[in-house]
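Blinded run. Sample ID left blank on purpose so nobody reads anything into the name before looking at the predicted structure. Input follows.
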Amino acid sequence: MHGKGHKVAFKRRRQGKTDYRQRLKLLKSRKPRIIVRKSNKNIRIQFASYEPHGDLIITTTLGSELKKYGWDGSFCNTPASYLAGYLAGKRASKKGIKEGILDIGLYSPRKGAKIFAALKGVVDAGIEVPYSEDILPDDDRIRGAHIGKDAQFEEIKKKIEEEHG
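Blinded prediction complete.
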């Protein structure tokens, strides 16, 4: 389209990377955003606060950091997502964050998704986040009973608890 009435959309909107209406709603809450993004091999959880010149990332946690605690499975399955969220929540609470709001970006919210396993980890670490209980995965899936990782899960959660109090 051409002409005086045509306005070109923001670049990230044209590329399908940012939903600015959703972002504005999250920013209006004035709470730190808990940004959860997943790839094929990893999950990333970031706590970010809004600054006029750009978002300020307070803390970042990757699923691959679980290797340091003895995790030998995939870094993007449900138990790894929960543990990464738990680790991120413990780090954020050490930095003085007590509450936040979940930012899942352009992902479609589905019951029991890995993104919500990470949310459950953040909440269990002591961060207050508004959410609905029925969207979370089952406790058996979070502990890794479906893949035989439940013993290792408890051991790693205990290590994270010991290190980050």
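Unblinding after everyone has recorded impressions. DSSP finds six helices and four strands in the chain.
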